[in-house]
Amino acid sequence: MEITDDKLFRIALITSLIGMIGLMVFTPTIEVKEIETSSLDLLCYG
Fold first, then answer.
1. Distance CA 30, CA 24 (A)
2. What is the pLDDT of residues 22-44, one digit of tens each?
3. CA 27 to CA 3: how far, in whole Å?
4. Residue 14 has what DSSP assignment?
5. Closest to 5 in 3D by CA, of 41, 13, 24
6. Which ranges constitute the DSSP H helices of the chain?
7. Whole-Å CA distances, 42 to 5, 30, 35, 46
8. What pLDDT does 5 receive?
9. What pLDDT sits at residue 42?
């Protein structure tokens, strides 16, 4: 099987489209957690 520029372009295009669709689908499910500063102090300074 010979890989030409056209085939590489199509593979890259399809891969990037799948990645963009995945980001759009899964982004609303990601939530930001609030971290208290006292727990950060314990982690940094023991």
1. 11
2. 988 887 776 777 766 665 655 66
3. 34
4. H
5. 13
6. 5-26, 37-45
7. 54, 26, 12, 5
8. 93
9. 59
Tokens in use for 32?
Answer: 């930001």
CA Rg value for the chain? 21
The residue to which tokens 């590489």 are assigned? 8
- Whole-number Å distance between alpha carbons of 24 and 28: 8
Q: Where does residue 30 rank: exposed (0-12), middle (13-18), buried (19+ CB within 10 A)?
A: exposed
Predicted pLDDT at 36? 65
Percent of the chain with pLDDT over 70: 72
